[in-house]
Amino acid sequence: MILKPQISDVRNIGYYLGRIILGIGLTMFLPFIAGVVLFREPNPALDFLLSANIAIFIGIALSWLCKTDKELNTGQAMVVIAFSWLAAMALSAIPLLLSGHYKSFLDACFETMSGFTTTGLTLVQDLDHLSRSHNLWRHLGPFLGGQGIAIIAISFLVKGSSGTFNLYLGEGRDEKLVPNVINTARFIWAISIVYLILGTVVLGLAGISIGLKPSSAFFHGACIFMAGFDTAGFSPQSPNILYYHSLAYEIIIIFFMVIGSFNFNLHYQIWRGNFKEIWKNIEMRTFLFVIMIIALITMAGLRQFNVYPGGIILLRKGFFQIISGQTTTGYMTIYAQQFLKEWGDLALTGIILSMALGGCACSTAGGIKMLRVGIIYQAFRQDIKRILLSPSAIVAQKFHHIKTMFIEDKQVRAVLIITSAYFFLYGLGTLVGVWLGYPFLEALFESTSAAGNVGLSCGITDAGMPAVLKVTYIIEMWAGRLELMSVFALFGFFAAILKGK
Amino acid sequence: MKKITILYIAALGIFWEAVYVAVIIGIGLLFVLAFRYI
To answer: Are the Cβ atoms of A300 and B35 closer than 8 angstroms?
Structure first.
Protein backbone atom coordinates (compact mmCIF):
# COMPACT_ATOMS: atom_id res chain seq x y z
CA MET A 1 0.00 0.00 0.00
CA ILE A 2 1.34 3.45 -0.93
CA LEU A 3 1.10 5.97 1.91
CA LYS A 4 -0.09 9.48 1.07
CA PRO A 5 2.62 12.04 1.99
CA GLN A 6 1.81 13.93 5.19
CA ILE A 7 2.12 17.70 5.60
CA SER A 8 5.29 17.08 7.67
CA ASP A 9 6.87 15.30 4.67
CA VAL A 10 6.06 18.24 2.41
CA ARG A 11 7.47 20.70 5.01
CA ASN A 12 10.66 18.66 5.24
CA ILE A 13 11.08 18.63 1.45
CA GLY A 14 10.22 22.35 1.23
CA TYR A 15 12.73 23.35 3.93
CA TYR A 16 15.73 21.61 2.34
CA LEU A 17 14.67 22.67 -1.15
CA GLY A 18 14.56 26.26 0.12
CA ARG A 19 18.13 25.99 1.48
CA ILE A 20 19.39 24.65 -1.84
CA ILE A 21 17.60 27.42 -3.79
CA LEU A 22 19.18 29.94 -1.42
CA GLY A 23 22.58 28.44 -2.26
CA ILE A 24 21.87 28.78 -6.00
CA GLY A 25 20.88 32.43 -5.49
CA LEU A 26 24.08 33.17 -3.58
CA THR A 27 26.25 31.70 -6.36
CA MET A 28 24.75 34.26 -8.79
CA PHE A 29 26.70 36.95 -6.94
CA LEU A 30 29.91 35.50 -8.43
CA PRO A 31 29.17 36.60 -12.04
CA PHE A 32 27.65 39.83 -10.66
CA ILE A 33 30.84 40.76 -8.77
CA ALA A 34 33.06 39.58 -11.65
CA GLY A 35 30.93 41.61 -14.10
CA VAL A 36 31.22 44.82 -12.07
CA VAL A 37 34.80 44.52 -10.80
CA LEU A 38 36.70 42.50 -13.43
CA PHE A 39 34.84 42.81 -16.72
CA ARG A 40 33.42 46.36 -16.27
CA GLU A 41 30.04 45.22 -17.64
CA PRO A 42 27.49 46.89 -15.33
CA ASN A 43 24.44 46.18 -17.51
CA PRO A 44 24.89 42.39 -17.89
CA ALA A 45 25.87 42.22 -14.21
CA LEU A 46 22.49 43.66 -13.26
CA ASP A 47 20.80 40.58 -14.78
CA PHE A 48 22.49 38.54 -12.06
CA LEU A 49 21.57 40.92 -9.26
CA LEU A 50 17.91 40.66 -10.26
CA SER A 51 18.01 36.87 -10.67
CA ALA A 52 19.92 36.37 -7.40
CA ASN A 53 17.31 38.41 -5.54
CA ILE A 54 14.49 36.30 -6.99
CA ALA A 55 16.25 33.04 -6.04
CA ILE A 56 17.21 34.25 -2.55
CA PHE A 57 13.66 35.49 -1.89
CA ILE A 58 12.15 32.13 -2.96
CA GLY A 59 14.78 30.21 -0.99
CA ILE A 60 14.30 32.16 2.24
CA ALA A 61 10.50 32.15 1.92
CA LEU A 62 10.40 28.38 1.37
CA SER A 63 12.79 27.67 4.25
CA TRP A 64 10.81 29.98 6.55
CA LEU A 65 7.38 28.61 5.59
CA CYS A 66 8.52 24.99 5.92
CA LYS A 67 10.89 25.41 8.88
CA THR A 68 11.52 22.07 10.55
CA ASP A 69 14.13 20.28 12.65
CA LYS A 70 13.31 16.84 11.25
CA GLU A 71 15.88 14.79 9.36
CA LEU A 72 15.34 13.92 5.70
CA ASN A 73 14.76 10.25 4.98
CA THR A 74 16.15 8.67 1.78
CA GLY A 75 12.95 9.05 -0.25
CA GLN A 76 12.43 12.68 0.77
CA ALA A 77 16.07 13.50 -0.01
CA MET A 78 15.69 12.08 -3.50
CA VAL A 79 12.57 14.18 -4.09
CA VAL A 80 14.45 17.28 -2.82
CA ILE A 81 17.30 16.59 -5.22
CA ALA A 82 15.03 15.97 -8.22
CA PHE A 83 13.13 19.22 -7.48
CA SER A 84 16.26 21.24 -6.75
CA TRP A 85 17.79 20.46 -10.15
CA LEU A 86 14.59 21.66 -11.84
CA ALA A 87 14.59 24.78 -9.66
CA ALA A 88 18.27 25.39 -10.46
CA MET A 89 17.49 25.08 -14.17
CA ALA A 90 14.59 27.56 -14.08
CA LEU A 91 16.18 30.17 -11.80
CA SER A 92 19.59 30.09 -13.51
CA ALA A 93 17.89 30.52 -16.88
CA ILE A 94 16.59 33.99 -15.91
CA PRO A 95 19.91 35.88 -16.38
CA LEU A 96 20.60 33.98 -19.61
CA LEU A 97 17.17 34.91 -20.97
CA LEU A 98 17.78 38.54 -20.00
CA SER A 99 21.02 38.48 -22.04
CA GLY A 100 18.92 38.43 -25.22
CA HIS A 101 20.97 35.57 -26.66
CA TYR A 102 18.23 32.94 -26.31
CA LYS A 103 15.12 32.64 -28.45
CA SER A 104 12.86 31.60 -25.56
CA PHE A 105 12.80 30.72 -21.87
CA LEU A 106 12.78 27.03 -22.89
CA ASP A 107 16.08 27.54 -24.75
CA ALA A 108 17.60 29.24 -21.71
CA CYS A 109 16.35 26.37 -19.51
CA PHE A 110 17.89 23.87 -21.96
CA GLU A 111 21.20 25.71 -21.66
CA THR A 112 21.22 25.76 -17.85
CA MET A 113 20.13 22.12 -17.55
CA SER A 114 22.84 21.25 -20.06
CA GLY A 115 25.35 23.21 -17.96
CA PHE A 116 24.39 21.93 -14.52
CA THR A 117 24.27 18.32 -15.70
CA THR A 118 27.70 18.81 -17.37
CA THR A 119 26.26 17.92 -20.77
CA GLY A 120 27.36 20.82 -22.94
CA LEU A 121 24.70 20.84 -25.68
CA THR A 122 23.93 24.49 -26.40
CA LEU A 123 21.16 26.60 -27.94
CA VAL A 124 22.85 29.99 -27.51
CA GLN A 125 22.57 32.51 -30.33
CA ASP A 126 25.61 34.55 -31.39
CA LEU A 127 27.85 33.14 -28.65
CA ASP A 128 30.84 35.15 -29.84
CA HIS A 129 29.15 38.37 -28.71
CA LEU A 130 27.79 37.11 -25.38
CA SER A 131 28.99 39.21 -22.42
CA ARG A 132 31.76 37.78 -20.23
CA SER A 133 29.49 37.77 -17.15
CA HIS A 134 26.92 35.60 -18.93
CA ASN A 135 29.67 33.42 -20.37
CA LEU A 136 31.14 33.00 -16.89
CA TRP A 137 27.70 31.93 -15.63
CA ARG A 138 27.40 29.36 -18.45
CA HIS A 139 30.71 27.87 -17.35
CA LEU A 140 30.05 28.13 -13.62
CA GLY A 141 26.98 25.92 -14.14
CA PRO A 142 29.06 22.81 -14.92
CA PHE A 143 31.50 23.65 -12.13
CA LEU A 144 28.68 23.79 -9.57
CA GLY A 145 26.55 21.00 -11.04
CA GLY A 146 29.53 18.73 -11.69
CA GLN A 147 30.44 18.70 -8.03
CA GLY A 148 26.71 18.54 -7.24
CA ILE A 149 24.10 21.14 -6.36
CA ALA A 150 23.48 19.36 -3.04
CA ILE A 151 27.23 19.45 -2.37
CA ILE A 152 27.00 23.27 -2.27
CA ALA A 153 24.23 23.06 0.30
CA ILE A 154 25.94 20.31 2.29
CA SER A 155 29.22 22.25 2.36
CA PHE A 156 27.85 25.56 3.53
CA LEU A 157 24.14 25.73 4.23
CA VAL A 158 22.78 22.68 6.03
CA LYS A 159 23.76 20.91 9.23
CA GLY A 160 25.66 17.63 9.04
CA SER A 161 23.34 14.71 9.70
CA SER A 162 21.98 11.53 8.19
CA GLY A 163 19.65 13.77 6.15
CA THR A 164 22.57 15.46 4.41
CA PHE A 165 24.06 12.07 3.56
CA ASN A 166 20.75 11.17 1.93
CA LEU A 167 21.00 14.37 -0.16
CA TYR A 168 24.49 13.30 -1.21
CA LEU A 169 23.16 9.87 -2.22
CA GLY A 170 20.35 11.47 -4.21
CA GLU A 171 22.81 13.02 -6.68
CA GLY A 172 24.00 9.62 -7.85
CA ARG A 173 26.95 9.52 -5.45
CA ASP A 174 27.23 6.56 -3.14
CA GLU A 175 30.83 6.72 -2.00
CA LYS A 176 31.85 8.66 1.09
CA LEU A 177 35.51 9.71 0.88
CA VAL A 178 35.77 10.27 4.63
CA PRO A 179 33.28 9.14 7.31
CA ASN A 180 31.73 12.62 7.62
CA VAL A 181 29.65 13.66 4.59
CA ILE A 182 30.38 17.39 5.12
CA ASN A 183 34.12 16.71 5.02
CA THR A 184 33.55 14.53 1.94
CA ALA A 185 31.81 17.48 0.25
CA ARG A 186 34.61 19.84 1.30
CA PHE A 187 37.29 17.49 -0.03
CA ILE A 188 35.48 17.38 -3.39
CA TRP A 189 35.63 21.19 -3.43
CA ALA A 190 39.31 21.15 -2.40
CA ILE A 191 40.23 18.90 -5.36
CA SER A 192 38.20 21.05 -7.74
CA ILE A 193 39.66 24.35 -6.50
CA VAL A 194 43.28 23.09 -6.63
CA TYR A 195 42.75 21.91 -10.21
CA LEU A 196 40.86 25.14 -11.07
CA ILE A 197 43.91 27.22 -10.13
CA LEU A 198 46.29 24.84 -11.91
CA GLY A 199 44.07 24.60 -15.00
CA THR A 200 43.47 28.35 -15.31
CA VAL A 201 47.21 29.10 -15.07
CA VAL A 202 48.29 26.37 -17.53
CA LEU A 203 45.53 27.09 -20.08
CA GLY A 204 46.04 30.85 -19.62
CA LEU A 205 49.75 30.55 -20.43
CA ALA A 206 48.94 28.29 -23.39
CA GLY A 207 46.42 30.91 -24.56
CA ILE A 208 49.06 33.67 -24.37
CA SER A 209 51.47 31.48 -26.33
CA ILE A 210 48.96 31.21 -29.19
CA GLY A 211 48.38 34.95 -29.32
CA LEU A 212 45.45 35.70 -26.99
CA LYS A 213 45.65 38.85 -24.85
CA PRO A 214 46.53 37.95 -21.20
CA SER A 215 43.10 38.97 -19.85
CA SER A 216 41.37 36.97 -22.58
CA ALA A 217 43.75 34.02 -22.21
CA PHE A 218 43.08 33.62 -18.47
CA PHE A 219 39.32 34.14 -18.91
CA HIS A 220 39.25 31.48 -21.62
CA GLY A 221 41.53 29.30 -19.49
CA ALA A 222 39.16 29.45 -16.50
CA CYS A 223 36.08 28.79 -18.67
CA ILE A 224 37.66 25.95 -20.64
CA PHE A 225 38.99 24.40 -17.43
CA MET A 226 35.60 24.55 -15.67
CA ALA A 227 33.80 22.98 -18.63
CA GLY A 228 36.65 20.50 -19.30
CA PHE A 229 37.36 19.24 -15.78
CA ASP A 230 33.62 19.04 -15.12
CA THR A 231 33.19 17.17 -18.39
CA ALA A 232 30.68 19.68 -19.82
CA GLY A 233 32.18 20.86 -23.09
CA PHE A 234 30.99 24.47 -23.13
CA SER A 235 33.35 26.97 -24.70
CA PRO A 236 33.36 30.78 -24.74
CA GLN A 237 33.56 30.80 -28.58
CA SER A 238 31.20 29.21 -31.08
CA PRO A 239 33.80 27.05 -32.92
CA ASN A 240 34.44 25.30 -29.57
CA ILE A 241 38.06 24.00 -29.29
CA LEU A 242 38.63 24.57 -33.03
CA TYR A 243 38.87 28.27 -32.13
CA TYR A 244 42.34 27.78 -30.59
CA HIS A 245 43.98 25.77 -33.43
CA SER A 246 46.67 24.52 -31.08
CA LEU A 247 47.98 21.00 -30.47
CA ALA A 248 49.38 22.01 -27.05
CA TYR A 249 46.00 23.46 -26.01
CA GLU A 250 44.26 20.26 -27.11
CA ILE A 251 46.68 18.02 -25.16
CA ILE A 252 46.18 20.11 -22.01
CA ILE A 253 42.41 19.80 -22.48
CA ILE A 254 42.73 16.00 -22.88
CA PHE A 255 44.58 15.98 -19.54
CA PHE A 256 41.80 17.85 -17.73
CA MET A 257 39.00 15.88 -19.42
CA VAL A 258 40.50 12.57 -18.29
CA ILE A 259 41.31 13.83 -14.76
CA GLY A 260 37.76 15.22 -14.48
CA SER A 261 36.25 11.85 -15.29
CA PHE A 262 38.15 10.17 -12.39
CA ASN A 263 36.23 8.97 -9.35
CA PHE A 264 36.61 11.54 -6.51
CA ASN A 265 37.35 8.64 -4.19
CA LEU A 266 40.28 7.71 -6.42
CA HIS A 267 41.58 11.33 -6.26
CA TYR A 268 41.28 11.10 -2.48
CA GLN A 269 43.28 7.86 -2.33
CA ILE A 270 45.98 9.09 -4.71
CA TRP A 271 46.30 12.48 -3.03
CA ARG A 272 46.84 10.70 0.29
CA GLY A 273 49.76 8.68 -1.04
CA ASN A 274 48.01 5.48 -2.18
CA PHE A 275 49.52 5.83 -5.67
CA LYS A 276 49.18 2.13 -6.61
CA GLU A 277 45.38 2.50 -6.53
CA ILE A 278 45.41 4.17 -9.96
CA TRP A 279 46.77 0.95 -11.56
CA LYS A 280 44.83 -1.57 -9.44
CA ASN A 281 41.38 0.01 -9.47
CA ILE A 282 38.76 -1.82 -11.54
CA GLU A 283 37.47 1.48 -12.98
CA MET A 284 40.86 2.65 -14.17
CA ARG A 285 41.64 -0.72 -15.75
CA THR A 286 38.21 -0.83 -17.42
CA PHE A 287 38.72 2.76 -18.64
CA LEU A 288 42.00 1.82 -20.37
CA PHE A 289 40.47 -1.32 -21.88
CA VAL A 290 37.35 0.48 -23.15
CA ILE A 291 39.45 3.32 -24.64
CA MET A 292 41.42 0.71 -26.61
CA ILE A 293 38.26 -0.98 -27.93
CA ILE A 294 36.62 2.34 -28.84
CA ALA A 295 39.84 3.61 -30.48
CA LEU A 296 40.00 0.38 -32.51
CA ILE A 297 36.39 0.72 -33.74
CA THR A 298 36.48 4.46 -34.39
CA MET A 299 39.87 4.56 -36.08
CA ALA A 300 38.97 1.54 -38.23
CA GLY A 301 35.89 3.51 -39.30
CA LEU A 302 37.94 6.62 -40.07
CA ARG A 303 40.51 4.55 -41.96
CA GLN A 304 37.73 2.99 -44.06
CA PHE A 305 37.05 6.35 -45.73
CA ASN A 306 40.60 7.73 -45.21
CA VAL A 307 39.05 10.71 -43.42
CA TYR A 308 42.27 12.01 -41.84
CA PRO A 309 45.28 11.07 -43.97
CA GLY A 310 48.01 12.43 -41.61
CA GLY A 311 49.04 10.88 -38.26
CA ILE A 312 48.86 14.08 -36.19
CA ILE A 313 45.53 15.10 -37.73
CA LEU A 314 44.12 11.65 -36.87
CA LEU A 315 45.22 12.21 -33.26
CA ARG A 316 43.81 15.75 -33.09
CA LYS A 317 40.50 15.05 -34.82
CA GLY A 318 39.87 11.35 -34.27
CA PHE A 319 41.44 10.49 -30.91
CA PHE A 320 40.43 13.83 -29.34
CA GLN A 321 36.76 13.10 -30.10
CA ILE A 322 37.12 9.58 -28.64
CA ILE A 323 38.47 10.97 -25.35
CA SER A 324 35.85 13.71 -25.41
CA GLY A 325 33.08 11.10 -25.82
CA GLN A 326 34.51 8.61 -23.34
CA THR A 327 35.00 11.22 -20.60
CA THR A 328 31.52 12.58 -21.51
CA THR A 329 32.96 16.08 -21.98
CA GLY A 330 31.78 16.88 -25.48
CA TYR A 331 34.58 19.21 -26.58
CA MET A 332 34.90 19.21 -30.36
CA THR A 333 37.81 19.84 -32.72
CA ILE A 334 35.56 19.27 -35.74
CA TYR A 335 32.25 20.80 -36.84
CA ALA A 336 29.07 18.91 -35.91
CA GLN A 337 28.17 18.24 -39.55
CA GLN A 338 31.52 16.51 -40.13
CA PHE A 339 30.36 13.57 -37.98
CA LEU A 340 27.61 12.89 -40.53
CA LYS A 341 29.26 13.93 -43.75
CA GLU A 342 32.80 12.55 -43.23
CA TRP A 343 33.00 10.01 -40.41
CA GLY A 344 30.86 7.13 -41.68
CA ASP A 345 28.62 4.79 -39.68
CA LEU A 346 31.35 2.65 -38.06
CA ALA A 347 33.28 5.59 -36.57
CA LEU A 348 30.00 7.17 -35.47
CA THR A 349 29.02 3.89 -33.75
CA GLY A 350 32.35 3.90 -31.90
CA ILE A 351 31.67 7.40 -30.57
CA ILE A 352 28.07 6.49 -29.60
CA LEU A 353 29.43 3.50 -27.67
CA SER A 354 31.98 5.66 -25.84
CA MET A 355 29.28 8.20 -24.92
CA ALA A 356 26.94 5.46 -23.69
CA LEU A 357 29.56 3.87 -21.42
CA GLY A 358 30.91 7.14 -19.98
CA GLY A 359 33.47 7.96 -17.30
CA CYS A 360 33.94 6.87 -13.69
CA ALA A 361 31.34 6.62 -10.92
CA CYS A 362 31.31 9.37 -8.26
CA SER A 363 32.86 11.82 -10.73
CA THR A 364 31.56 14.68 -12.84
CA ALA A 365 31.17 12.33 -15.83
CA GLY A 366 27.93 10.82 -17.08
CA GLY A 367 26.93 7.64 -18.88
CA ILE A 368 26.65 4.10 -17.51
CA LYS A 369 30.08 4.46 -15.80
CA MET A 370 33.22 2.35 -15.82
CA LEU A 371 32.59 0.82 -12.38
CA ARG A 372 29.34 -0.75 -13.62
CA VAL A 373 30.96 -1.92 -16.87
CA GLY A 374 33.77 -3.49 -14.83
CA ILE A 375 31.37 -5.22 -12.43
CA ILE A 376 29.26 -6.59 -15.31
CA TYR A 377 32.45 -7.98 -16.90
CA GLN A 378 33.51 -9.63 -13.62
CA ALA A 379 29.99 -11.08 -13.18
CA PHE A 380 30.26 -12.57 -16.69
CA ARG A 381 33.59 -14.15 -15.76
CA GLN A 382 32.05 -15.56 -12.60
CA ASP A 383 29.13 -17.11 -14.50
CA ILE A 384 31.41 -18.62 -17.17
CA LYS A 385 33.54 -20.16 -14.40
CA ARG A 386 30.36 -21.56 -12.79
CA ILE A 387 29.45 -23.26 -16.10
CA LEU A 388 32.93 -24.69 -16.65
CA LEU A 389 33.71 -25.86 -13.11
CA SER A 390 32.02 -28.65 -11.18
CA PRO A 391 28.47 -27.79 -9.96
CA SER A 392 29.60 -28.14 -6.35
CA ALA A 393 32.47 -25.69 -6.81
CA ILE A 394 32.15 -22.36 -5.00
CA VAL A 395 33.09 -19.61 -7.45
CA ALA A 396 34.13 -16.34 -5.87
CA GLN A 397 35.05 -13.41 -8.14
CA LYS A 398 37.07 -10.55 -6.69
CA PHE A 399 37.57 -6.98 -7.87
CA HIS A 400 39.49 -4.04 -6.50
CA HIS A 401 37.86 -0.67 -5.97
CA ILE A 402 39.59 1.17 -3.09
CA LYS A 403 39.53 -2.19 -1.29
CA THR A 404 39.31 -5.74 -2.58
CA MET A 405 35.72 -7.01 -2.67
CA PHE A 406 33.82 -10.10 -3.79
CA ILE A 407 31.11 -9.80 -6.45
CA GLU A 408 27.68 -10.24 -4.86
CA ASP A 409 24.43 -11.02 -6.69
CA LYS A 410 22.72 -8.05 -4.98
CA GLN A 411 25.40 -5.72 -6.33
CA VAL A 412 25.17 -7.13 -9.86
CA ARG A 413 21.38 -6.74 -9.76
CA ALA A 414 21.66 -3.06 -8.76
CA VAL A 415 24.23 -2.46 -11.51
CA LEU A 416 22.06 -4.14 -14.16
CA ILE A 417 18.96 -2.15 -13.12
CA ILE A 418 20.75 1.20 -13.56
CA THR A 419 22.40 0.03 -16.80
CA SER A 420 19.03 -1.03 -18.22
CA ALA A 421 17.53 2.28 -17.16
CA TYR A 422 20.25 4.13 -19.10
CA PHE A 423 19.55 2.04 -22.21
CA PHE A 424 15.85 2.84 -21.79
CA LEU A 425 16.73 6.55 -21.62
CA TYR A 426 18.97 6.37 -24.72
CA GLY A 427 16.15 4.54 -26.53
CA LEU A 428 13.47 7.00 -25.45
CA GLY A 429 15.25 10.02 -26.94
CA THR A 430 16.05 8.06 -30.09
CA LEU A 431 12.38 7.14 -30.54
CA VAL A 432 11.28 10.77 -30.16
CA GLY A 433 13.98 11.85 -32.63
CA VAL A 434 12.97 9.24 -35.20
CA TRP A 435 9.29 10.13 -34.69
CA LEU A 436 10.15 13.76 -35.52
CA GLY A 437 11.77 12.66 -38.78
CA TYR A 438 15.50 12.44 -37.98
CA PRO A 439 17.49 9.43 -39.31
CA PHE A 440 17.99 6.63 -36.73
CA LEU A 441 21.77 6.92 -36.25
CA GLU A 442 21.61 10.71 -35.86
CA ALA A 443 18.73 10.45 -33.38
CA LEU A 444 20.63 7.76 -31.41
CA PHE A 445 23.81 9.86 -31.41
CA GLU A 446 22.11 12.98 -30.06
CA SER A 447 19.96 11.08 -27.55
CA THR A 448 22.97 9.18 -26.15
CA SER A 449 24.86 12.47 -25.96
CA ALA A 450 22.04 14.08 -23.94
CA ALA A 451 21.29 11.16 -21.59
CA GLY A 452 24.98 10.35 -21.11
CA ASN A 453 25.62 14.05 -20.30
CA VAL A 454 28.21 14.25 -23.07
CA GLY A 455 27.46 17.21 -25.34
CA LEU A 456 28.88 16.02 -28.65
CA SER A 457 26.42 16.91 -31.38
CA CYS A 458 25.93 15.75 -34.94
CA GLY A 459 23.88 18.85 -35.67
CA ILE A 460 20.38 18.05 -34.39
CA THR A 461 20.68 20.29 -31.32
CA ASP A 462 19.85 23.72 -32.61
CA ALA A 463 17.56 26.57 -31.55
CA GLY A 464 15.30 25.61 -34.47
CA MET A 465 14.66 22.02 -33.37
CA PRO A 466 11.12 21.10 -32.23
CA ALA A 467 10.16 22.06 -28.67
CA VAL A 468 9.17 18.42 -27.96
CA LEU A 469 12.75 17.35 -28.65
CA LYS A 470 14.14 20.14 -26.46
CA VAL A 471 11.95 18.99 -23.56
CA THR A 472 12.92 15.33 -24.21
CA TYR A 473 16.63 16.19 -24.09
CA ILE A 474 16.13 18.28 -20.92
CA ILE A 475 14.48 15.25 -19.25
CA GLU A 476 17.24 12.96 -20.51
CA MET A 477 20.01 15.24 -19.23
CA TRP A 478 18.28 15.60 -15.84
CA ALA A 479 17.53 11.88 -15.41
CA GLY A 480 20.98 10.87 -16.71
CA ARG A 481 22.82 13.13 -14.27
CA LEU A 482 20.79 11.93 -11.27
CA GLU A 483 21.25 8.31 -12.40
CA LEU A 484 17.44 8.04 -12.65
CA MET A 485 16.70 7.00 -9.06
CA SER A 486 15.88 10.50 -7.78
CA VAL A 487 13.66 11.03 -10.83
CA PHE A 488 11.81 7.78 -10.12
CA ALA A 489 11.46 8.89 -6.47
CA LEU A 490 9.88 12.16 -7.66
CA PHE A 491 7.40 10.29 -9.87
CA GLY A 492 6.69 8.00 -6.90
CA PHE A 493 6.06 11.04 -4.70
CA PHE A 494 3.45 12.39 -7.16
CA ALA A 495 1.90 8.91 -7.49
CA ALA A 496 1.65 8.75 -3.69
CA ILE A 497 -0.11 12.15 -3.58
CA LEU A 498 -2.65 10.97 -6.17
CA LYS A 499 -3.14 7.33 -5.19
CA GLY A 500 -1.81 7.01 -1.64
CA LYS A 501 -4.01 6.22 1.36
CA MET B 1 51.37 15.38 9.41
CA LYS B 2 53.06 18.66 8.51
CA LYS B 3 51.39 20.83 5.85
CA ILE B 4 54.44 20.66 3.60
CA THR B 5 54.30 16.83 3.67
CA ILE B 6 50.58 16.89 2.76
CA LEU B 7 51.33 19.24 -0.16
CA TYR B 8 54.23 17.06 -1.29
CA ILE B 9 52.09 13.90 -1.30
CA ALA B 10 49.23 15.71 -3.10
CA ALA B 11 51.70 16.97 -5.75
CA LEU B 12 52.94 13.40 -6.21
CA GLY B 13 49.30 12.35 -6.56
CA ILE B 14 48.80 14.89 -9.37
CA PHE B 15 52.00 13.55 -10.98
CA TRP B 16 50.67 9.97 -10.99
CA GLU B 17 47.34 11.13 -12.40
CA ALA B 18 49.31 12.87 -15.18
CA VAL B 19 51.23 9.61 -15.81
CA TYR B 20 47.90 7.80 -16.27
CA VAL B 21 46.77 10.42 -18.81
CA ALA B 22 50.14 10.09 -20.57
CA VAL B 23 49.48 6.33 -20.87
CA ILE B 24 46.09 7.09 -22.49
CA ILE B 25 47.67 9.56 -24.94
CA GLY B 26 50.34 6.91 -25.61
CA ILE B 27 47.60 4.40 -26.48
CA GLY B 28 46.13 7.00 -28.84
CA LEU B 29 49.52 7.53 -30.53
CA LEU B 30 50.00 3.77 -30.89
CA PHE B 31 46.62 3.39 -32.59
CA VAL B 32 47.34 6.38 -34.83
CA LEU B 33 50.67 4.85 -35.88
CA ALA B 34 49.09 1.43 -36.33
CA PHE B 35 46.30 2.74 -38.56
CA ARG B 36 48.59 5.02 -40.56
CA TYR B 37 51.52 2.77 -41.24
CA ILE B 38 50.40 -0.88 -41.01
So the answer is: yes
